[in-house]
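User: Okay, second chain of the day. Same drill as before: sequence in, structure tokens out.
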Amino acid sequence: MNLTDKIVVVAGASKNTGRVIALAAADAGANLVVAARSASAIQAVAGEIEARGRQALAVTADMADAQQARAIITSAVERFGRVDALIYNAAYMHQRAFLKIDEAHWDQMLDTNLKGYFVTAQAAAQAMVDARIGGSIVGIASTAGVVGFPNNADYCASKGGMVTLTKAMAMDLSRYGIRANCIASGFINGESVAEAEQAGGGAVLQALRDFLPSRRFAEQSEIASAALFLASNASSYCNGSVLSVDGGLTLGNLPSGR
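Assistant: Same drill. Structure tokens below.
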């Protein structure tokens, strides 16, 4: 993917898939603004980007705070003069049965996953309109925004909101040359999978893998490749799309025949 000299903002970039996305964008030629709650972690990612010969600005921000979320885009424009692409990867997740979800958990989930996406995307789109350059907005949603998962009602609601918000943004922003797309990712290898295996959850994880037609979870680099595709001109005719990167999870629960 070619992102040479593009200014790419990655929200939620301090670890796991967000970090991989940011480094992949740097390898594709982009200069980056990376944001996360942990100052030390996001500074470390910025250092990795600069070690690759690209420019990077680290911004400490809690995406559940609208003022902090908007400030990411303000900082990007102040440093680089424009924003070419936003990739929103910030997310909060906890598993809780529907009857056990309290208002505080609901607010944390929706504020981070959905409101943060809305606020950051709106600020990025306004910067793109002001600069008259067009651009791309990419939301890292989830298959949980397409189908229901048990014990994840608030997470499903937040990711489903991301999916339909993306489609609505695509309708409103097309006139400015701005595209909006999202990724419905499935299970991804990362820290949470490793922690679950160490905690004795290997059998459950293997059952999930066996359920998938792919028989495996996604690598973080596979999500990054999809995100960079949607952020780049390679996807110039994709707008309002939901790209499933889930190993066939949303195909249904019928045996694959293998």
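Helices lie at 16-27, 39-51, 66-80, 103-131, 153-173, 191-198, 202-211, 220-231.

User: Thanks, on to the next one.
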